[in-house]
Amino acid sequence: MDLILFLITAVIAITGAVAMLVSRNAVHSALFLLLNFAAISVMYLLLSAPFLFAIQLTVYAGAIMVLFLFVVMLLGAEKVEDAPDRIAWQQPLALLLGLALLVVSVVVGLGGATTPPPAGEALAQFSDPRSLGALLFTDYLLPFEVTGFILLIAVVGVVVLNQRGRKI
Amino acid sequence: MELLIWLIPLLPFIGFLLNVFVIRREREAGLVASGLVAAAFVVTLIAVAMLAGMPPEERRIVSTAWEWINTGSFRVPFAIMFDPLTAVMALLITGVGALIHVYSIGYMHGDPRVVRYFAYLNLFVTMMLFLVMANNLLLLFLGWEGVGLCSFLLIGFWFERKSASAAAVKAFVVNRIGDAAFILAMLAVFAYFGTLNFYGDGEGGQLGFLERVSDIAGLRIGPDWQPIFVSTAISFLLLIGATGKSAQFPLFVWLPDAMAGPTPVSALIHAATMVTGGVYLMARAEPLFVASFTTQGWVAWIGALTALLAGTAAMAQWDIKRVLAYSTVSQLGFMVAACGMGAYVAAIFHLLTHGIFKALLFLAAGSVIHGTHDTQDMRRMGGLKDAMPITFRTYVIGALALAGIVPFAGFWSKDEILAHAISHGQTPIFVILFLTSLLTAFYMGRQVALVFFGTQRDPSYHPHESPQVMTVPLVVLAVGATIGGAINLPVLHWLTDWLEPVLHEKAGEFNLWLALIATAGAVGMGYLGWWVYTTNAAKIKIGGKDPAYRYSGDIWEGMEEAWYFDRLYQRTVVAGFERLADFLARVFDPQGVDGLVMGVGRFFGGLANGVRALQTGYVRTYALVFTVGVLIVLGVMLWFAR
Amino acid sequence: MVPTSYYVLLSAILFTIGVLGVLLRRNAIVVFMSVELMLNAANLALVAFARERLAVEAQVLVFFVITVAAAEVAVGLALLVSIFRTKRTADVDEVSTLKG
Question: Complex ipTM, two decimals?
Fold first, then answer.
C-alpha cells in the first residue's frame, strides 16, 4: 500500500520536475514546480513527518511559489529564451554531467548498508510534532532566533534592494 | 692616562661634529678646527711625557672602550694603545696637522664651503689618529678607510672641476685594490692567530698576534710543488695594502692626480700623514715582515724602484705641485725600501722629517699659488723671491732638507737609510737610492730656480706675499725642517732608543765617508739643477719644452709622463673594464638580464592570457565547472570509501 | 514500509534534474526554481534518513533549511528584479560583463 502510494507520488514528483525543466514558459515551469513541491510534501507524510508536510505546503507551495509566480508575471519574463543559446556547446556536456552525477549520487545514496525502517511505538513518537516543537524551543532555541533574525534581514534587504530613486 | 689617550682622537672628532652640526660661519670653523687639533697636540705631548716617565719595557698603554664585535670566536675590542711608535706618529699628525689647519684659515679664506672643508679635515685627523693608535687590525682598517674617505672627499673638494672629481675617484679606486689585499691579510691573520689584536692588554689575557709571530714559524700553505710560508703570505698581502695607501709601485698613479685638491690637503694628507700609513703599517707589523725573508726583498725592491721612478718623473714636471707629488712618492719609496732592509727606525725617522719638510714645501707651494692667483705652471712663474721673501726662504729651507744637505732634517734621515743599505750589503738598493737622492737634489734646484729666480715669465698677475696666518706656520715648519734631524743624530740616537721597545733596533754606525760623498753629490746636483734653469731661463716659454729636452729627447718626455704608467693602465685595466662594462650594458643587460626579467613577465602574461579565456562571464559555465568539481570530489570520496 | 533507499533514489533524480535546470536554462527565474528543487531534493533525503535513524533533530534541520530558503528566495528574487530593471532582461547570459 505504502509502496504504491510512494510510487505514484514519486512519478508525480519526477514528472513535475522534468516538466518544469522543459517547459518554455516560466509560468508553466512555476506551476509544475508547485506540483513537485506538493508531491514532496506528500512524501514527508509518508516519511512520518507531518509537521514538515504542513510547513512544506504553506512555505514552499504557498508563499515561495506565489512569490515566484508574482515576480514572473511582474517582470513579464515568461519567455526569455527565444534568442539562440550562445553557449549551446554546453548542453550535451551538461546532460552528460547530469547523468554522471545521477550515477554517482545513486551509488553514494545506496552504497551504505540500509537497515530496515523502524516501526511501531518508536516511529509513532518520532512522528509526533510535539517532540519537534519541544526541541525547537529548548535545544535549538538560539538557531531558531537566529533564523528569525535572518528573515528580518531578508525583509530589510529586499526593501533596500528595490528602493526607487536611490542608487546603491 | 687611559682617559688622556682617548682625548687625542676625540678632540678632533668633537671638532668634526661641531663643524658638521653647529658651526655655520667660516671664521668660527677655522678657529674651532685648529684649536681642537692644537689641543690634541698638547694632550699628545703630555701623554708622551708621561710615557717617557715609565720604564722602557712597560711603555705601552692599551685601553679598551667596549667590545666592538663579539660573535662567537671572533671578538674585536674597540681598543686603542699608546706606545713609542704611536707617540711619534701622533705627534707628527697633531703637530703638523694643527699648523696646516691654521694655514688653511688663510688659504681657504673666501671659499664658499670652508666649514665643510674644516669638518673633513678634522675627521681626517681623527681617522688618522685611529689608524696609528688602533690596537687591532680592524680598528686600524677603520682608520685606514676613514682617511681614504677623507682623502676622496678632499681631493674632490672642488668637485665643480671635472678633473678634481675624476682624481678623487681615481684615488679611491686605486686604493681599493690595496684595501682588498688588506682585508685578505686580516682574514689570514685571524685564521692563523685567532685574534686581530696587535698586543695583549698587559693584564694577562690573550697575547696579540704581533707577540706570537713564532706560532706560524715554518708553517706553509699552497700546493706541494710551490709551498709558501704563511708569514710570507700575510706580510705580502699587507705589503700590497701598503702600496695602495703609500702610493708605491705599481699603485702610485693616484697620488700625482690627487693634487687637484686644495694645497693644504696635499700637504697634510698626501705628503705628511695619510700616505705614510703604509710605512707605519709595515713598521707596526715589523715582526711579521721580519719573519718573511721573501717579502722583505719585495718590500725593498718595490721601495727602491718607486723611489727611482718617481724621482725621475719629478724632474720633468711643470706643475709646481706635481713635482712635489712625485717627490713624495719617491721619498715614500725611500721609507719603504728602508723597511724592506730592516731599517725600521730609519724609515720612521725619514717619515717624521719628511712629514715636516714636505708639509713645509707643500704649504710654501700653496703660498706661491695663493700669491700668484692660482698659478701652478712653473713656466708662468719666475723671479718670485723678491715678491715673497718669507715664502722664498722657507721654501729654500724645505728644498735643502729634501735634497739632503747638512744640517737640515732630511740629510740625517736619508743618510741613515743609505748607511743602513751599505752596511747590510744591499748594494743594488743602495745604488738606486743614492742615484735617486742625487735626482732629488737636482729637481729641487730646478724647482727653486724656476719659481723664484730669473724674471717673471707671465706678467698677467701681480705676485704678493701671503698673510701672516699662512706665513707663521711656514716659519714654524721651516724651523722644524732645520733642526728636526736632531731627534736622531748619529751620536745621540734619541729616536732609536725611544723606539727600541717597539722595533728592537740598535743604532747603526755613522758612515762619515758616505755622508761626505752624499752631501757633496747633493750640493753638486742641486747647484747643477739651479744653474741649468737659471742660465737657460730665457729659453723657457709658456707651454714650451724643457731646455733639457734637447739633450735627452724622448726620455724626458717619458719622465714627464711618469713612464706612461697612466697610459698603460688606461689602455689595459681601464679599457678592459670599459669593454666589460660596455658588453654588460649593451649586450648582457638588455638581452641577458632584461631578457630574463621580461621573459618571466611575458611568460606569466601569456599564461594569464590563456587562462583568461576560462573566465567567460557566463554563470552557467561556472556552474558547469562547479559540477565537474563536485563530481570529482564525490568520485574521490567513493574511491576511498570502497 | 518503503525502504529509505527508494527515497534516496528519488532525491538523487530530483537533484540531478535541478542541476540540469541550472546548467541548461537561461531564464533566471527558472534557474532559481531549479535551485529550489535541489534544496527540496536534499530535504527529502534528509527526512528519509531521519526516519531511518528516528532522529527528530534532522527534521529540525529541515525546518531551518526551509526557513532560510524562504529568506533566500525573497532576497534572490529582489536581486532579479533589480537586475531586470537595469538590464531589461531575465536572461542570465546577458549578465556576463564580469569576464577576463
Answer: 0.90
